[in-house]
Design brief:
93 residues; single chain; 87% helix; Helix Hairpins; 3 helices
Length: 93
Amino acid sequence: MSVAILSWSLLAAQVMLALAMLLALYRMVFGPRAQDRILALDAIYVVALLLLIAQGIRTSSHIYFELAMLIGLLGFVGTVALAKFLMRGEVIE
């Protein structure tokens, strides 16, 4: 019974995370300012990371955890680069 509860809980979590990703995508497309769009992009990569972790737990596969780590690293670097571009107008000084 606990396996069924875990399976349904992971499915519910993935559905809610997908909904959160859609809402963040809406904010990224129709955001009023560039700062809102960057924040939405940051939220999208965090939600994608969480979706991969939930899928890794659901399938008991280690590849999803490695992909989540890669997305986290690239998402952080991308967010820092975009924030620096907004502040100074250039990424590399």
